[in-house]
Amino acid sequence: MALFGAKSFVGVDVGSHAIKAVELAPVGSRFKVVHAGIGDTPAGVVKEGAVVDPQALGLAIRQVIGQAGIKGGRVVSAVGGQAVIVRELKLPPMSDDELKQAARFEAERYIPYGVKEVNMDFDIIGETLEDNQKKMVVLLVAARKEIVDKHVQALEAAGLQPFVLDVESFAVMRALDAQAHSNGEAAVFVDLGAETTDIVITEGGQLRLTRNVNIGGDSLTKAVAGRMDMEFHSAQQMKEEKGAVLLEGEAAPDDRNVNTLHDVMLPILGDLATEIRRSLDYFQTRWRESRVGRVVLSGGTARLENLDRFLSLELGVETIVGDPFTQCEVPDRVLGGEARKQTAPALATAVGLAMRGAAER
Hints:
Blueprint: E1 9-14, E2 18-27, E3 30-40, E4 46-47, E5 50-51, H1 54-68, E6 74-79, E7 84-91, H2 96-110, E8 118-130, E9 133-144, H3 145-157, E10 161-167, H4 168-180, E11 186-192, E12 197-203, E13 206-213, H5 217-228, H6 232-242, H7 256-286, E14 292-298, H8 307-315, E15 319-321, E16 328-329, H9 337-343, H10 348-360
Parallel strand pairs: 1-6, 3-16, 6-10, 11-14, 14-15
Antiparallel strand pairs: 1-2, 2-3, 4-5, 7-9, 8-9, 11-12, 12-13
């Protein structure tokens, strides 16, 4: 069956606050953005990365892809956050059948529920020497069957056919990899979701570390709502319109709301910087000869004014806001200049998922 015509591929990213969909068509070694859309996730239908109400979510997905001009068909989607477990295993060389058994046995050490309750996959991503013995480096990914099933049900309720179910952080890495690495140095991907943040470190094409921390855009919004005595939605709008990190040595704005927002958000952003620094420190203790070259931000909260500069100063590492469209031609009719700038960080996962579709064709 063709995937949205002969040569186009669709990624659907479902978050607790927003649904994002991107359709890409390969053009040589690059892509053309055919359609893109973003819309609200109904309140309460996705919690902690897991679908709670597949039918309600399916209707919302159908609306987003319809408004974007995307026709129903096969899609690539993803699970992420606390709903998925990613671990790196080091195992002695063995046959494929032995590896399946060994990976399942090792998985029991990391999965807090029965192995029979999960959908699990693994891939050999490299090899290493440990105590002068050759080892395979195996990436293990697991998610509860219930979580996977409900995600699939939501896509089917939207009239879509799930083609591949990926991991959100892997999709982000795929979309932003071209911006992340320089001179062979390690890269840090920080994907700021509504409820949680994924921190991933890669080096030389290999995953070195993956963490999920309980800090996200909602943490900022709730703090703003509490300080300014607002409903959550109003606080979210205020944060998006006037939120900024004010840097020392630069002139303070006249708008008191901007100053108040900064004061409210700064402790939470400081906690985020601490968690990223802990990840960097752990990485450096394990790979002492390695060096981190760049931190790349994605997700809606990455648009917060001066967040990249703030983290650069806090971490002592160059930090940029990722643009998943650097490998793409983006027609103005799909995403005009300002719309592209505003939505690009939030669309990183969806772009990476569509790229996965191209790889799987």
